[in-house]
Write a structure and sequence with these properties.
Layout (H helix, E strand, L loop, with lengths): L1 H30 L6 H26 L3 H26 L2 E2 L2 H22 L3 E2 L1 H19 L13 H36 L3 H26 L3 H26 L5 E2 L4 H20 L2 E2 L1 H20 L4
Antiparallel strand pairs: 1-4, 2-3
Helix pairs in contact: 1-2, 1-6, 1-7, 2-3, 2-6, 2-7, 2-8, 3-7, 3-8, 3-9, 3-10, 4-5, 4-8, 4-9, 5-8, 7-8, 9-10
Length: 312
């Protein structure tokens, strides 16, 4: 039985990764015809696209009463976005971004990462806290779109090109939704069989799987010298995880509330990782090989702690 579920999980993760790539590629194709800056594209299009797997997986888990797995995926993905994705890509190439382009976003990300920590540290949370996080997300979007970005669609786009882009985007989203369902249900069976908590499964295995498309995207972007796009994606997707997705999960959670004090360790890692990112971007105007290695070591320590710590 568990072998079958393991096979289903592997297939579902593979489909999820492939479908996510279609969604991401479609978003990039759209962005190529716009006049938006790379940093803006990273947040507006790419970050939203790469967050679809986490959103669907987390909402699916919540709807089938596997909320600890949903919370685990959200927090685990947020840590993986910075420590794993940024760590791996900066080992290949140093990231240099002008301070003026990242200062405000880095400051906001650090502040926003503290908000979920404060909310979840209450011990019992529910829909009210979800609304608070959604309001924070709306405020962040207002700041981002206030007077920075404009969409100037270029002329001369072939109708056939748009049809292909939209087709793969829609098919990708549908496959993401279907595969996410099987990822959650099979992971729950595997967790029960091995006596591992659903939260740990979400923090490690599922979050790693949903982060792989982003790792591939940002690795390619930085290798091509599109550092601002990658940074915009990492900053944006982390904010989306900690506000929009977490807020939605809490909004759909039982009205009686959820006991979440056991998430102290991942929340601490999120704040540490964001603090290191803030320092690197603001003080050094980029991230070098040394910082990248430090991020990876931080992620390895996090995974080891999660696999050896009992959680809800």
């Amino acid at each position: 039985m568990v072998l079958v579920e393991a096979i289903i999980f592997i297939i579902a993760i593979a489909v999820l990764i492939k479908a996510s790539k279609w969604v991401i590629d479609s978003s990039i194709a759209i962005s190529e015809y716009t006049g938006i800056s790379q940093l803006a594209i990273g947040f507006i299009l790419i970050a939203f696209s790469v967050s679809i797997p986490d959103f669907v997986v987390s909402v699916t888990a919540t709807l089938i009463q596997k909320t600890p797995m949903a919370i685990g995926d959200i927090l685990g993905s947020s840590i993986a976005n910075i420590c794993l994705v940024l760590g791996v890509v900066t080992l290949v190439r140093k990231v240099r971004v002008e301070r003026m382009h990242t200062l405000e976003s880095a400051e906001l990300l650090l502040l926003i990462s503290i908000v979920p920590a404060v909310i979840l540290s209450k011990g019992v949370v529910g829909p009210l806290e979800g609304v608070i996080l959604l309001v924070v997300f709306a405020m962040y979007c207002f700041f981002i779109f206030r007077d920075k970005f404009s969409m100037n669609i270029k002329d001369g786009i072939k109708r056939k090109e748009w049809r292909n882009v939209i087709f793969f985007f829609i098919i990708g989203v549908i496959l993401v939704i279907i595969s996410a369902h099987y990822v959650v249900t099979s992971a729950a069976v595997i967790a029960v069989f091995f006596g591992i908590s659903e939260a740990v499964i979400g923090l490690t295995l599922i979050s790693f799987g949903t982060t792989l498309p982003e790792l591939a995207l940002d690795f390619t972007a930085i290798r091509r010298g599109q550092c601002a796009l990658a940074i915009g994606d990492i900053l944006g997707s982390t904010v989306i995880n900690l506000t929009l997705i977490l807020g939605t999960v809490l909004l759909l959670s039982p009205t009686g509330g959820l006991a979440l004090m056991s998430y102290t360790i991942p929340l601490a890692f999120i704040i540490i990782a964001n603090s290191l990112l803030f320092y690197s971007l603001v003080k050094k105007e980029g991230i070098g090989h040394r910082e990248g290695l430090l991020f990876i070591i931080l992620y390895i320590i996090f995974v080891m702690l999660m696999l050896t710590t009992r959680m809800v």
